Amino acid sequence: MTQKYPISLIIASLLSCFFAIPLTTLGKEDDTTLRVFIFAGQSNMVGSDSKVKDIRRFPPFAGLEKPQAEVRFSYSIGRQNKINSDGWVDLQAVNNVVGPELSFARKVTSGINAPIAIIKCAAGGTHLGGDWNPDEPSGFKMYPLALDLIRSSLADLEKKKVKYRLEGFMWHQGENDMFNKDYMPNYGKNLKNFLACWRRDLNAPKLRFYVGELCTKTIWGMDLRPRMYAISLGQKAVTQTDPLAEYIPTSHVGVEIGGGVGLHYHYGTLGQLQHGENYADAYLRTISKAKEVSRPLKKWPYRKGSPIRLFIMTGHRNMEGERAFVQELAGLEDGKVLLQDNPKIAFRYSLGGGFRESNSWEPLGLTGHYDNFGPELSFGQTLQTKESGNIAIAKFTHSGSQIIDWTPVGSMAESRNIYTKFITFVRESIDDLQGRGHQVDLAGIFYHLGENDMSFHPYRKEAAERLQTIIAQSRKDLTLPKLKWFVSQQPPTDDKHVNSLDVVADVTAAAAADASFFHIKAFDLPPQEKKLVITTEGIVRLGELIARGYLESK
């Protein structure tokens, strides 16, 4: 069945041929043409469960609660009760909800001189197979709604003689398709058709698409792992074959902390703001405007041929430092020293499952992608003040993972398996130091126990056993039968749905049975603002506590 559209929209589309300027005909430094971006999808594109007032809780994004007058914004958001801009307005939060467009716009406008505009059409609980189906839209008929919004918004620019070009289409959707037995296996096929129809209907054959990954850190990333994996395969099938489509990782970003056990379905405020920056970074890379941060060691800190003790730090949300922010460090009594690079400790890292990686060894310092940091700063500082000799730190984390992803067997969601990457990272760290002429002593692996696992009954039940499997296999693969593991554990989720499982006792028993397994109980950290996630001061104290646990083990 072919979808029919009003003659006014067809005329507007024809007119757009005269005003929309293809990317290929413009120089990269064109700073006068308005660059128009489209944002579309379901609830995690809307910004569900985020709050404008919470932006102040996240210092890297301060100020985004205010309108951005230099950015045009046209929108239609919601299902039955839609909120419409009815034309172009200043970019701002809608209905006190934070969408990714806010941080996207700020980062893009700081990276280019050209003006930008955003058209957004999103509604929670909508399907690509139905609502967004270009050929036979059903339900809330989002495809024709979005097409009408985009065409009318562009027609208004043309009426005002504003020169523009369609620059990119940001898409985040898929959660609802995984509940439909027909939509889920056909997501890739439907997405391919979706992209083709937009390029056709907007007369933009080279329109770029940025497809956001479904976040595995949410509860659905755990209890609906096979379904979410199926959607990811469909998304990757398209982005790996379409040269104008890019898959945007999001599983490492912040996720809202819910009631009860703490797990949630949505990014919430922090995740939305980080999600927007991911899109911005991808776009800026596309146009060769991404700002690369270089932090080389200006001088190798170790005497030639001298021995080095290598410390491996690894884990999930709090080892990555999801809610510990650089801007808050200066306010801590001992925080100012941690703001400075420490060139006496070589540091390499892979964060977010490879989302951000060091090129080589850097000075120990601030490396978080969103102005965040982990316990490595205070860990290194504490060791350095108590120990003599050379120290190097390598950090491998993925805050969107669960313990099952780290096991040698992994899960049926094969792309989420991380054990082999982790062991490879450790080997490469050792080999690099040895290649520089140093004798390397792998002092230990310092792992912070998975936070999300503690909130989901099946994962909490298996946590200690899975951890033992990882430890045993790592010793075999690294040929270090007495390799020390230091496992830090914060107070596990306190809720009636999981309290029947005494995971602390399970880990304690595992450590008691293994002379090279040290259980560090991080039960006296500064109070957390939310369940699961440790904030700035707590992360600093966690690093100190882990370091003391190592020193006391000697």
Care to describe what's here?
With 554 residues, this protein is of the alpha/beta class. It has 2 domains: 7-286, Rossmann fold (3-Layer(aba) Sandwich), CATH 3.40.50.1110; 308-553, Rossmann fold, CATH 3.40.50.1110. It is built from 16 helices and 16 strands. It has helices at 7-19, 43-46, 101-111, 142-159, 187-201, 220-223, 225-239, 268-286, 317-320, 326-329, 376-386, 403-406, 419-435, 457-477, 503-512, 536-553, and strands spanning 34-41, 68-77, 83-84, 89-91, 116-122, 164-172, 209-212, 245-248, 308-315, 342-351, 356-357, 362-364, 390-397, 440-448, 485-489, 517-521. Strands 1, 2, 3, 4, 5, 6, 7 and 8 form an 8-stranded mixed sheet that branches. Strands 9, 10, 11, 12, 13, 14, 15 and 16 form an 8-stranded mixed sheet that branches. A hairpin with a 4-residue loop joins strand 10 and strand 11 (356-357). The longest helix is centred in the C-terminal third of the chain and has 21 residues, at 457-477. The termini are far apart. Mean pLDDT is 94; it is low at 1-27.
